[in-house]
């Protein structure tokens, strides 16, 4: 997993960058393939805003979150990305593995 963190009118300190990386580490448990996450931190006065674009095997996912402080916005963003990846993973799984008359050729 590759994480790029940048700021828009906000200085991205090493502490913020490390916080983003530690919060987004858990996303790797849903995906076996390498993927890229671009995180943008900005001010949307009076709130702090965190946005992320996740590129995964040609598929792009987007999430954003805003909160009173930047760390809370990053927490909300990590939760949203986690749910998005779970939803994406479930869509990729074949849910039609059971017995089906159309599959085995007997149409009744």
3D structure, described in words:
The chain has helices spanning 14-24, 70-92, 101-104, and strands at 2-8, 36-44, 47-56, 59-67. The chain is of the alpha+beta class and 108 residues long. The mean pLDDT is 84. The longest helix has 23 residues, at 70-92. The N and C termini lie far apart (49 Å). The protein is built from 3 helices and 4 strands. The chain has a 4-stranded mixed sheet with strand order 1-2-3-4, covered by helices on one side.
The end-to-end span amounts to 49 Å
Helix content: 25-40%
Work out the number of β strands: 4
Cα-atom Rg, whole angstroms?
18 Å
- Low-confidence segments, ≥5 residues, pLDDT <50? none
Kindly report the spatial arrangement of strands forming the biggest sheet. 1-2-3-4
Task: State the helix count.
Answer: 3
Shape: elongated
Task: Average the pLDDT over all residues and give the rounded result.
Answer: 84
The largest β sheet comes out as: 4 strands, mixed
> Would you tell me the structural class of the helices and strands?
alpha+beta
What are its keywords?
about 35% helix; alpha+beta
What's the short story on this structure?
The chain has 108 residues and is α+β, with helices and mostly antiparallel strands. It has three helices and four strands.
Layout of secondary structure:
Layout: E1 2-8, H1 14-24, E2 36-44, E3 47-56, E4 59-67, H2 70-92, H3 101-104
């Amino acid at each position: 997993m590759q994480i790029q963190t940048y700021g828009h009118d906000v200085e991205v300190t090493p502490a913020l960058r490390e916080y983003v990386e530690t919060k987004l580490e858990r996303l790797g448990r849903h995906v076996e393939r390498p993927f890229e996450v671009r995180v943008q931190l900005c001010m949307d006065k009076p709130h702090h805003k965190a946005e992320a674009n996740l590129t995964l095997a040609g598929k792009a996912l987007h999430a954003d979150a805003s909160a009173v402080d930047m760390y809370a916005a990053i927490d909300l963003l990590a939760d949203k990305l986690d749910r998005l990846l779970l939803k994406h993973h479930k869509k990729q799984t074949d849910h039609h593995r059971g017995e089906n008359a159309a599959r085995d050729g007997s149409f009744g």
